[in-house]
Amino acid sequence: MYNTLISAEELLNISENQHTRILDCRFRLGDTNAGRKMFAEGHIPGAQYIHLDDDLSGPIISGQTGRHPLPSIAQATDLWSRLGIDETVQVVVYDDVGGAIAARAWWMLRWLGHENVAVLNGGLAAWISLGGTLQQEIMTVSFREFKANEQKGWIVNVEELEQLRQNTQWAIVDSRTPERYRGEKEPIDPIAGHIPDALNAPHPNTIGADGVFKSSEELAELYKDYGLPNDSEKTVFYCGSGVTACRNILAYSVAGHGIARLYAGSWSEWIIDPERPIGTIE
């Protein structure tokens, strides 16, 4: 079974198995209906569509949550059950942006105890390059009872993070691009900067020019260069809203370091309270 990455060749071998469930996670922040349109125009045969805002996020509460708060365990359990996922199912998630969105679905399933879930390495482009076909027909799936088994400690809340960032035994890692981390510009959130004491490990650097994740050895060296420890128990990733940090968590695991923690509220939650400090680099 696959629990981090799966190649297009490997997916082709299992795609028609009744115990394989394929989930299309394509999404665009600037046009939240774009993913559904692309899915309708053509998707990997048998795939179901899941939407970042509607399926992989809970309701935004003004003044309390970031831009993509996690859904409740009950909401996530209902989603996975409706998609026909139980403990016998191998889940494969994909997108067309190097796993940046699909990794959120991967992380949520792993968080709730479903180990057999993997991101399609190279995404939809890898499938097409291999000669994989696309279909427009939307297949129906039968309900299966998903039994959640929450992995305790995988999520760090803002109160915990305020303490941990000042503890030198912990690594708090900002997954956004360097210019956002430094506070030079902020295209999405109203305040620029980073959580003080955080390191920067830009999530796009986990992917090569071909859209495929770098090798485990390359990723291990990358995180070493960023100053990250090989200690998933004391490493916390965040980003703008808790989505692309999951790509870093996936890559960190591929590097052989285990599943790190997630500050799910991320920068968009941190800046809600004006009393929280802001770090910048000039």
Oligomer: single chain
Helix content: 25-40%
> Main sheet: which strands, in order across?
1-5-4-2-3
Give the rounded overall mean pLDDT: 97
Number of domains: 2
Which spans of ≥5 residues are poorly predicted at pLDDT below 50? none
- CATH classification, class level of the largest domain: Alpha Beta
Structural class: alpha/beta
CATH architecture assignment of the largest domain: 3-Layer(aba) Sandwich
Overall radius of gyration: 18 Å
What form results from the Cα inertia axes? globular
Can you describe this structure?
This protein is an alpha/beta fold and 282 residues long. It folds into two domains: 5-129, Oxidized Rhodanese, domain 1 (3-Layer(aba) Sandwich); 158-270, Oxidized Rhodanese, domain 1. The chain contains ten helices and nine strands. It has helices at residues 8-14, 34-41, 73-82, 102-111, 123-129, 158-164, 178-182, 216-225, 245-254, 266-270, and strands at 5-6, 20-24, 48-49, 90-94, 117-120, 171-174, 199-200, 235-238, 261-262. A five-stranded parallel sheet has the order 1-5-4-2-3. Strands 7-6-8-9 form a four-stranded parallel sheet, covered by helices on one side. Helix 4 links the parallel strand 4 and strand 5 (117-120). Helix 4 (102-111) crosses helix 9. The protein is globular and about 50 Å long. The protein starts with a strand and ends in a 12-residue tail after the last helix. The mean pLDDT is 97.
